[in-house]
Each structure stands twice: as structure tokens, then as C-alpha cells.
Amino acid sequence: MKTTERIQTALWKTAEWFKGVAWKLASLYHPANLKQKGLLASAGLLIAAALVFSLALGWYWSQEPDSFDVQQVALQRFAGDEAQLRVGVIFTSTLIHVGEVLLDKPGGYLSNDVMPPGLWLDNMPNWEYGALVMLRDGAAALRNHMSRSQSQSVEDAALAEAEPRFNFRNDSWLFPPSEGEYRKGMKALDDYMRRLADPANQQAQFYARADNLRQYLEIVEKRLGSLSQRLSASVGQIRVNTDLAGDVGAKQSTTASTSVVVKTPWLKLDDVFYESRGATWALGEILKAVEYDFEQVLKKKNALVSLRQIIRELEEAQQPTLSPVIINGSGFGLFANYSLTMANYIARANAAIIDLRDLLQQG
């Protein structure tokens, strides 16, 4: 039998199997059959069907979004007119699109759901939170640094409106819902972006300077450092307290032990993992936009390759997991440890960001 015939036979058998299953389910849930089984049995069958449907829908909603082409997304906003992709437009467009993905992906925004199946899910809400934090940091950097020439310059009114909108609590269902606040922030960002693309409007500005990028990367560096530490704590660690290291006269509010045991609770492992996945996804897209808008600065500092390496590390952190649960083997054990693997990619990206900031500081 030829390969084509084998494939056709296999497909035919599969179709027949699905047809048989569909026929049996139709017979099982036929009104006459439900009436014959009685109220209790019928209710049980309907509840079972609802649970199976909810589980399938929850699985579909939990699929992580793909990456996107930041330049093409920006072009679509201006009907393909490349002349309007002025400095800062791609960065702002990317922030808006990260927000659009959060709110408009399959299932919508799940962090504030109060009904199943969204209520039962925790992986995607944690993913959303990680991406949201990066969106907040990007909006704050845009408002406080990239849109301002000097410390005494006036901030853009639209950005002053957008940034606090994204800092609204992420789990508010009503009065007002989180989605409504975030959409207002996205609308304000869009207003700034449209004025930025307009050559006749000189009020909205984006300054692609090395010092502005360094200030943004300083925030990112701390975010990634925190995620890396929390992921590494999946196996438990004894850490030396270095809070006051390097400053003889430094003090802190309360006395702390010289060493501390840090371990992420077992039930929180997947929360930290998926928060990191969301954060690295959003940051990777934002840094792709940085590559476009800060291209001249990065080339002058010979730092373009360093940025691309950071993006690559963040993309590696998005590899699909083979296990439906987050495996938490010991560091040198028989089984994998997803958290340590993720921590490795994030730590490498963070180290590269530190090097990039040093390059940007040099003349």
C-alpha cells in the first residue's frame, strides 16, 4: 500500500471514529433519552458536559500569544505609510499592541474573571500580570524620560493620562473594570502616537538618546533580577544577606539575619513561572521596538549586537513546555526544572542588559 493510500485510510478511520463518538453523544443527550433517565441522571449528564466544555475552553484560553512584527503592526496603524514611522512611533505602537493582546486574545482579559472557566485559570492571569508590569514600565519610561528633553521640560498631557491608567489594579471586575482603564490608557497612547507621526505637530516629541534608554534599562534590569531570584528559589536556597554590601555607613529599617533560606512554595511555582513568561514576552517585543527607534544611538555606541542578544535570550525563554505541569526537579536531579531553566535565560538577558547600559554610558 502506498504512503498516500495509508494516509487516506488513517484519515478515513479517524473521521469514522469521530462520527461514531458524535452519534453516541447525540443519542446520549437526546431529550427523549434524558427524559427516560430521570431528573437526577439528566442533571449529572448536563453537568458533566458543561465541565468538559469548560475544561476545553480553559485550555484554549490558556494558550500563550505568539510574537509579532513590531514594524508591521505600526505600519498597519498608518495604512502602510512608512513616512509616518517617525522616531518613537514603533515604540509607542508596540506598547499599545501589548495592551491589545492582553485584552483581545482568546478569552479576553482573564485576571478579573468571576465566572468559569476564567475563574479556574491561574496560568494565563499570571502571564497577563507579567506582561502588564512590562507595559507599565514602558509607559512610565515614555512619560518620564523618552518624551522629555530635560528634567525641567513639560510632560506630554496624553502620556500623563496614560501612565496611571495602566497602574490601575489588575483584578477589578466592576466599578470600574480593569479593561476599561487599560483601554483608556491605550487610547491616550494612541493620541500621543498620532501627534508624534504628524510632521506639523511639534508639541509631541520622542527623544532617542542614550541616557533615556539607560534609564529605562535600569528599571528593566531590576525587574529581571527579581524574576530570576524568585525562579531560582524553586529548589530552595540559603542566601547570604547582601542588602547593605558595599556601603560601610548604610543602615536598614530592621535588623536582618546574615543568611536567609529562600524557597518558593510548591503551589506558587507555576505562578512565578508564567508571570516570567508574560514578562519576557512583552519585554522582548518592546526591545524589538527599541532596536528600530534607537538604531542610530545603538550603532554609534556599537551596542546593536548586544541588544539583539538580549532579545534572543528572551525569545529562548518562550520555548513551548512539553509537560502540562511545571516540573520542579532538583538542580542536578533526574528530572527537569522549568523554573531554573527560565531563570537561566532571564539571568543571561539581565547580564547582557548590564553590559548594554555600560556601553551606552561610554562616550
Automatic annotation (TrEMBL):
Keyword field: Membrane, Transmembrane, Transmembrane helix
The keyword Transmembrane helix appears for this protein: yes
Transmembrane portions of the chain: 39-61
Protein name: DUF2333 family protein
Biological classification of the source: Bacteria, Pseudomonadati, Pseudomonadota, Gammaproteobacteria, Chromatiales
